[in-house]
Request: fold
Amino acid sequence: MTTAIAFDLIGYLFIASSAVALYRVLWGPTIPDRLLGLNVVSAQILAIIVLYAAKEKLHVYLDVALVYDIFGFVGILALTRFLGKRQRKGNPI
Amino acid sequence: MIELLVYLFLFLALVFNLMGLIGILLFPDPYTRLQASSTCSTTAVVSVFIAVMIDAGLSAITGKVFVITLFFFVSSPVGAHIIAHYAWNMGIVPWRKLRKSRPEDSSHG
Amino acid sequence: MRVPFKMKASFKWKLVRILFTTVWLFGGWLLYTGSFEPVSLGLGVVASFLVAIATYDLFIAEHEAAKKGLLVRIHYGILYLLYLLAQMYLSSFAVLFNILRGNINPRIVHFRTRLHSDLARALLATSITLTPGTIAIDLQEDHLIVHWLDAKTTHSKYAGTLIKGKMETLLSRVFL
Reply:
């Protein structure tokens, strides 16, 4: 299969871009910036898992990818709920 | 022919990913960065999914990736909406382009 | 004489809601296990029924139960998905040129939607957020607040027709 090489290259690109998106997580001026960076990183890693599963023809990785998708979403939800509650109490963030 | 389609979608993923990253790094406020990240994290990832589905043909991988795509169609915009709603409730004022010709326009709203 | 009748009706609607949730969950089970062995099918029915008893109240709200808005026309659903995909790529290219030129004009716009059921409204807000360039910030009843990256107008009705496009009419046809 010749597409395997292309899958590999796009996978490396996604790894590099998730590293760039970590800039927003670490140095984002506000909290929504950090959450946005986390959202981007979780989506890119989902794509990497799917690419790897398609390259190696491993079905198990796709189950992992589905659960990873759900947990990334639930993680963002939990973080915003937690931070919103802290904000309503009046604590500094 | 089919491989050409796969390469086309992978190329689209590459372009959208790079442009989205540039947008994330350069845009001025969280809302606009969120807009840029939706090209980077939604369109690029969906392009990758479509490329994988075309490449796998009619097999079990295609069905599972299709289910993942449907989940992603729900989970990614809802995540972006949650972040935007949180920023809105936090009281972050959206950035607006200043017009030099009409200075009274930038004072209200 | 009226009270037992009312209780019976509510019980009937509860049963309908539980069954509907079970069918949806079992569809997900079939799609994801992908096997048609009797043991797997039986386990799926039992598991989705148990989960449906626990979660039917979250899945279908009580005032939504009597409406027909939960049934889906399949062919219009597929058409909607394809239209959404095309719209996603088109507006991605628009955002891409905005990023390249560095020329953005972000605004907050408010508009209303004509859709009635909660599910259809939530789907409309999700579709607006999925297409790059627009993000739905808030949804109160039928009132949407949208952040628009490259605003062409701030007039409420005109912005509504520009952002929603054909999505609203298609969605009103998807649900019965």
